[in-house]
Amino acid sequence: MTRSAPSGADAALIAALADLGLTVSQAQLERWRAAHYLPPHPREHLGRGRGTASHLLPQTVARAAWLAAVSRQGRALPVAGAWACWAADGSPGGVARLRTAVVDQLDRYGKRLAAGNTDDDDSWQRRHNAAEAAARRVPGLDQHAPLRAIATTAARDPAAVAPLPRVDRGLALVLGRLLAGGGEDVGEDELLEALCLVFPEQARGLRTAAAARDAAGHGGTWKGFPLAGGWPVLQDAVQAAPDQALARAVELVTATAAALELVLVRLGPAAQAGLPAPPTGLDVEAVPDAMTTALADPMWDEWGRHMPLHGDSPAWPTVAAFQTALTLLLPGRADALAGYRERTEQLIRPSSRIPSRPHVVLGTPRHQRRSR
């Protein structure tokens, strides 16, 4: 079957990519659109009886260039990239794919964590063993120590970044058991004791809050603690989320991780070696300060240090799905993450020469563009 010639906007897009040294066919553009990786061109009315015409946007060129570069390397689109594209697309089809991908990832890990949750006598032990295995992997996700070493070397100051205590495996086990079996497997007092051991400076406040819960008749009920419902609560949060809320949650997770990757992974080694920073417009002398600021942010300890910064990391899909669900589930989490993203991106745009977002190739979600 003979394929029709590209539309005016597609012809302009193919030409713009060729100017960048990228060869893309009309068929490839159609495949990207069918997968909701590339948005359609906006159309405008030309007047009565004159029909409509599509026009090419700069962000479409940037997105297609990124997609073409990935394709030219012979790799499938990384999960992080696919999720970011679907979130930025904002269309019902794109968000539907996004929802399915996040729920499927949560379902796969949840089944492993629940270890075939049944009512037989051995089910508790299987869940405990699965949670214990998961708890052993958690410290391996902690990126603070290696990145601190890079930052302090680049800053030529061993005290530039404070060390952080490693994640306590005991607390990780309690939380893992809570996610695996819910409040039926873990008591509030057990979680309280684990928290007090890890955060001794906050132990008095934690015990006071627990006593107030007991006095109000809520002790042992897990009231106000959504994770007591276990892993299924996370899946339910993603399934029930409105399209716009889900797209925003995924965009926050992917964009914040991308900004951290730029500051801590791409710029850091260059600064450590005394090389020019990658093309961000940031002077190499400013990189150590950017790194130390990023590592000192309170949200780094709470969120960033356990989020894989490489989008092609095997752990990225599971952690990103978990963080997406928490962003939807926990009150104030989305706003806190949005603030963290803004602070991190601010580190790499010290002047008007810097793009407003390091993930500019993914564009801005359509539902956000309409609201501006």
Shape: globular
Write down the overall mean pLDDT: 83
For the biggest sheet, the summary is: 2 strands, antiparallel
Order of neighbouring strands in the sheet with most strands: 1-2
Number of helices: 17
What's the total number of strands? 2
Strand content: under 5%
Order of helices and strands: HHEEHHHHHHHHHHHHHHH
Regarding quaternary structure, what we see is single chain
Distance between the termini: 43 Å
Helix percentage: 55-70%
Rg calculated over all Cα atoms: 24 Å
Polypeptide structure, described:
This protein is 61% helix and 2% strand. It has helices spanning 8-19, 26-34, 58-72, 79-89, 92-114, 123-141, 144-155, 169-181, 188-198, 203-215, 231-240, 243-272, 287-296, 298-302, 316-329, 333-346, 366-371; strands at residues 43-45, 52-54. It has a two-stranded antiparallel sheet with strand order 1-2. It is globular, with a radius of gyration of 24 Å.
